[in-house]
Write a structure and sequence with these properties.
Elements (H helix, E strand, L loop, with lengths): L1 E5 L3 E8 L11 E9 L1 H11 L4 E6 L5 H8 L4 E4 L6 E7 L5 E4 L8 H15 L4 E5 L10 H9 L5 E5 L2 H9 L8 E2 L3 H8 L3 H6 L1 H12 L5 E5 L5 E5 L2 E6 L11 H14 L4 H16 L18 E4 L6 H4 L1 H5 L1
Helix pairs in contact: 1-9, 6-8, 9-10
Length: 329
């Protein structure tokens, strides 16, 4: 089983336009969709769609529209009661796949709610292969909360994956090796944030991205799955580094593509796949999500793992050769 925690869930509303977004203009939507969201919720939806056991832990009222949507999609969930409504995030999608997101902050969580979320998470993690801590943290939550949860989950025996950004990501990386998750899933911007490098340079050069990810293993991580947009993703473990390139697709929305990629990786791991095939499935799932509208999660039939090209990366070259800036960081 996989258990996910989403501290800042959302209803993800996507507005599709027939042409480019024009600031200050009046434009009409060609399609509007709304899906239960938040990064951990997205992972749970994808895993559930693949027919695997999953449970989503989240703060929510029992009859919140988000919970009703999860119930309709038959995604198992464990809500912790809170007084406020789940936030609504807005995405504007252009025909070329460009997306503009406007995210609400989310309702504050009290210390009492955090304790309850941790208790529910630990209880579910005892029967899980993976615990996934995903997304932003709402107001009232300490930046180092993910580090606290990683330490708390150690004795449950499950592996831990984290996908976050900003201050929570920095706090996690500064917390020490005892708070290092088994898997970290940054994108190029997040990888740049924690290595001090240039995000565009990392996305343009998979070898530099892999070299940067390898440095993170020194902080106690067992694996780094770094997504690089249309270039695919790299996976770095103590055993090696690999690059996976996706097949050509017509991108409709990149919202939740990273969440889908993490889902693909975890699903392959549940099936006993090796690192190359875990990465292959991750990129297939990420591309599958990008080809769908809004924040829809692909089913296995909507992915093309056989069309993903995976190659081993030789990182024996010096870090300076891969990226001069990396050697200085």
């Amino acid at each position: 089983m996989i258990v996910t925690l989403t501290a800042n869930p959302s209803i993800d509303r996507t507005v599709e336009l027939s042409g480019p977004l024009v600031r200050g203009a009046v434009q009409r939507a060609t399609r509007v969709t709304a899906e239960p969201g938040g990064k951990g919720v997205n992972v749970a939806r994808a895993v559930n769609a693949a027919g695997q056991l999953v449970v989503a832990v989240l703060p929510s009222q029992s009859e919140d529209p988000l919970v009703l949507a999860l119930r309709e999609q038959q995604v198992p969930y464990r809500p912790v009661p809170v007084p406020g409504a789940v936030r609504v995030n807005l995405t504007v999608a252009e025909p070329d796949g460009t997306t503009t997101k406007i995210n609400e902050l989310g309702s504050p969580l009290t210390p009492e709610v955090l304790v309850q979320l941790e208790e529910v998470l630990r209880r579910e993690a005892g029967a899980a292969r993976w615990a996934v801590l995903s997304g932003s943290l709402p107001p009232g939550v300490p930046d180092d909360w993910y580090a606290t949860l990683v330490r708390s989950l150690r004795d449950t025996g499950c592996s831990i994956a984290v996908d976050t950004s900003g201050a929570p990501l920095s706090a996690l990386m500064e917390a020490g090796s005892d708070a290092a998750p088994d898997l970290l899933k940054p994108n190029s911007e997040e990888l740049a944030q924690i290595t001090g490098l240039d995000a565009d340079a990392l996305e343009a050069d998979p070898r530099a991205a892999a070299a940067a990810a390898r440095l993170l293993l020194e902080r106690g991580l067992r694996a780094v799955l770094a997504s690089l947009g249309a270039r695919g993703a790299v996976l770095v473990t103590a055993d090696g580094a690999w690059l996976a390139t996706p097949p050509p697709i017509v991108a409709r929305s990149t919202v939740a593509a990273g969440d889908s990629a993490l889902s693909g990786y975890l699903l392959a791991d549940l099936a006993g796949a090796g690192p190359e095939d875990r990465l292959r499935n991750a990129v297939a799932y990420g591309a599958g999500a990008a080809a769908l509208p809004g924040s829809m999660m692909p089913t296995p039939g909507e992915t093309q793992p056989d069309a993903v090209v995976v190659e081993a990366l030789d990182l024996d070259v010096s870090i300076a050769a891969a990226s001069p800036g990396l050697a200085e960081s």
